Amino acid sequence: MTGFKPFGLMKFEKDAVTLKLEEYESFRLIDYDGLSQEQASVKMNISRPTFTRLYNRALKTIAKAFVEGKAIEIEGGNFILESEWYRCRKCFRLIEGLENHIPCEGCTRFGTEELIRINLTTGAG
Does 3.40.50.920 match the CATH number of domain 3-74? Predict the structure, then answer.
């Protein structure tokens, strides 16, 4: 996913806040995976104070979107992906590594695998 929008917001309305990928990851690790800040900072390979700053920015951005009824766009930031990721052009499924790809009906119906590599290089993105 590249973002979220409030119910009732029209597609063409562009009033949004930006959540950087590393802020999203900090939020996911704490509030979805249930890790402690110490565990999450180790997983992200950053210091605990840096992690806390990222996490607090994520919370502030998400709160602003909720309170002000703004869409959230997830993009940018600094990150390293440990493996190659692909997205199917037909079903939009995310695949970690070609060895994990099971062709969807769209892939087999059109006779070709419509995969886009989404991390062209490892490193800052």
Answer: no
